[in-house]
Amino acid sequence: MANDVMLRFVETGQSFPEKRPAPYRREDFREIADRYSVPAAEEQAGRCSQCGVPYCTVHCPLHNHIPDWLRLTAEGRLREAYELSNSTSTMPEICGRICPQDRLCEGNCVIEFSGHGAVTIGSVEKFITDTAWEEGWVEPLVPGRANGMSVGIIGAGPAGLSAAEYLRLLGYDVHVYDRYDRAGGLLTYGIPGFKLEKPVVTRRVERLQAGGIVFHLGFEVGRDASLSDLRQRHDSLLVATGVYKPRAIRAEGVEADGIVDALDYLTASNRKSFGDAVPAFDNGSLDAQGKKVVVIGGGDTAMDCVRTAVRQGATSVKCLYRRDRANMPGSKRETANAEEEGVEFVWLSAPESFEGGDKVSAVKASAMRLGAPDASGRRAPEIDPGAGFTVEADLVIKALGFDPEDLPRLFDAPELGVTRWGTLRTDGKTMMTSLDGVFAAGDIVRGASLVVWAIRDGRDVAAHMHGWMRARAAAASAATPQAA
């Protein structure tokens, strides 16, 4: 049957779910496109060439069985497609929405190389699991047989949630500690609804809670308990805090009012979507309505900021980035979405100073040019002398990325080892930190990265923690004298 429905990429063109017109989507924070209809999903899945060596799977951090669940979708076997997709990922519908598929699976699709346009893997992945939720195929989390041991997880972002699910399936009592009042980390507060509507995250968290995972929200390690306290409370710990310290801009006037950090801005917007009271939004400090907005940065966080500002009613939105379009780190699709919605990109530009005294009124920018390649292989930006310019601004949003916080100090654990970048130092084979029984995963180890890598790290670290605790329990049992 597969031969009848697959290999259709020559006669069937690439087609993504239709996006709402830009003027309409500027008015709300709903996702910009609906999911496929069943016939459209089957048709697009049928374009897969069923490669002998599936580069899409190779370049997926989770190594999802992509050709297999595309074939099942094309054959109308959606429940089987969901079960196969779910077997390697704890959040397939979230990855389908926010993964940069153009840089991962779809960017390495063989038929993309042949000029026929990649299979729309992310859109099909979203369709499969959204359908599974609606049809009741997403089964409750059923804990494994209780083993009498408990695990503490610091951080309720994608790495922590992924590890929590796997460890609960293995029979552990799992407690998740997070400083926010809602679980999800950046999925909840850092990513806008037009990319990831919040009920999609909430239903995942509620499933974990129903499976017996205990969430301690509004809990700060170092304030409510030290790391040492938690080590005594649990058989092992996982640190999965992510990285939240905003990278600074070194420029004159950067302390002026009206210059804000990206995460503060995005969190305020997402909180308003939840209906929370947000004084800094209500007084205008973190609201772009009626303002000339300048966002500095070129990654996905910068794209989230410019598109949020458009929806808040900014009079103009400009994005300053020090490299050109071809060297931009963010998703090319997100850039295109932003341009459709009215964002202006000012390529090869970087802030030199901020004007206006106590309250920012303009960004004085240097024009840049690309010089020799840097350590990453990209051509390094350098100032183009005498080619500066000024951009008016009432609100400047700094979106230059994130670095780790000083966890040894915050956790009152000076013995917790870190790298020269401030990330937690772990053993490459075991994922354990310098402290016995304390593991780490996600961005706090690898630096700011993708959600899909955090999910992969959560899956991997759960296996390492399970192995370590089993070995420890076995050693303790062997050391205990047996009754005659």
UniProtKB/TrEMBL annotation:
Residues 25-136 form the Dihydroprymidine dehydrogenase domain. Residues 150-458 form the FAD/NAD(P)-binding domain. InterPro entries: DPD_II, FAD/NAD-bd_sf, FAD/NAD-binding_dom, GltD-like, Helical_ferredxn. Keywords: 4Fe-4S, Iron, Iron-sulfur, Metal-binding, Oxidoreductase. It comes from the Bacteria. It holds the Pfam family Fer4_20. This is NAD(P)-dependent oxidoreductase. It comes from Sphingomonas rustica.
